[in-house]
Amino acid sequence: MDKKPTAVPREQPKSPPLLTSTARESNGKRKAASAAHPKRRSPAPSRKAPQEESERVKFTHIEKMMFPQAGLTKGDVLKFYETISHRLLPHLKDRPMTLERLPDGLTRPNAPRFWQKNTPAYYPSWVPRIELPSEAGKPVQYALVNDLNTLLYLVNQGTITFHPFLSRVASLDHPDFVLFDLDPGQSSFAEVVKIARTLHEVLHEQSIESYLKTSGKSGLHILTPWAEEGGYDKARHWASGIAARVVEELLDLATVQRSKAARGKRVYVDVIQNARGHHVVPPYVMRAVPEATVSTPLDWDELTPRLDPKKFTTAEVLKRIAEQKKDPMAPLLCPA
C-alpha cells in the first residue's frame, strides 16, 4: 500500500505545465517495472488542492506499473484522469461514490482489489463526504468527487473505477436517468448489438431519447433521462416493462433472468441497478481489465456487429474527445 500522501514529498511541476519529471525508483519491484519500459517516463498531474502547503495533493510511486498488458503506469492513469476530468466530473458531481481500488493494479493474479464505500478518517478534510446509512443501518461516509483535486487524490490512492449513485445528494430518492445494462455472458457481441438496436427502436417509438456507451468491458449500457415525478421504484418498474418487451421480440437472444444458469447463452437485459444505494459505471472511467479499456459514449450509427469494445483504450478515448465539440451524454446531466 502507498504511504499517506502527506508523508511523500512531491516535485515541483516543469514544462509542460501539467507534467512533472519522474522520480527515482525506490524499490526492486518498481525498478523491474521501469526496466520493462526503459524509454518511457510516466507523467503525473501537477494540480494542487487549494489548501495550505501541508494539504497539497502529493502523488506517490508514479512509476509503478498498473496495467502491464497495456503498458500503463500509475502516472499514466493519473494523467488520463486529469485530462478526461472536464468530461468525467459532471457525471460524478454530488453523487455518493463507491470506489473500486486496485493499489497494485493488475500486476499479478492475486493483486488486492476491494470496493470502498466508507471514507477513511485519514483522507484530507477537503475531500467532501456525505453520511448515509447502510442497509444494516450503519453510518457510511461516502466520498463526493466534485473537483479535480479529489478525483486525483482518490486515483493516487489506487482507485481505478468510480461507481456513483444514479441520483444526487439533493434528491437521493429520485434517479436522474434509467440504466439498461446489456450483459453478454456467453453470447457474442453481435447479439448484444442486435438487442441494443431493438431496445433503441422500442424507446424511439415512445419518443424517448436514449444514449449509448460501452460498459468498458464486454457489454453495452443504454441510458435514458428520468424526468418523471416517481422515484427509483417507478423508474425500475418502467424499465422492467421495456426490457420485457425487448425480450418478447428476441426470445432466443435476450432474457431478464438474473440466474446465470437460467440465462444460458442469452444476453441479460439488466435493470436491477435502478435502485437507491446501487451504483453505475459512468462514462469516461477506466475499467480494471488487462486492456485498460474505458467506458465510452458512442453514436448510434457506430453500433455495428463489427464494433470491438476492446478498442476503446485510454489513448483512443482521449483522441475521440479531442475531436468532439461536446459530451454526447450531456443531456443525461441534471442541473448542478
How are the elements arranged and paired?
Layout lengths: L27 H9 L28 E3 L4 E2 H19 L3 E6 L12 E3 L12 E5 L5 E6 L3 H9 L2 E6 L12 E7 L5 H17 L5 E4 L5 E6 L6 H18 L4 E2 L4 H4 L3 E4 L26 E2 L15 H10 L13
Parallel strand pairs: 11-12
Antiparallel strand pairs: 1-2, 3-4, 3-6, 3-7, 5-6, 8-10, 8-12, 9-10, 9-13
Helix pairs in contact: 2-3, 4-5
Question: What does this 3D model show about the protein?
Answer:
The protein has seven helices and 13 strands. The chain is an alpha+beta fold. The protein has a domain of 156 residues: Alpha-Beta Plaits. The strands form three sheets. Strands 11-12-8-10-9-13 form a six-stranded mixed β-sheet, with helices on one face. The N terminus is likely disordered.
Coarse shape: globular
* Level-1 CATH class name of the domain at 177-332: Alpha Beta
* Count of DSSP H/I helices: 7
What would the average pLDDT be, to the nearest integer? 87
Strand content: 15-25%
What name does the CATH topology of the domain at 177-332 carry? Alpha-Beta Plaits
Contiguous runs where pLDDT drops below 50 for at least 5 residues? 1-39, 49-54
* Content-based structural category: alpha+beta
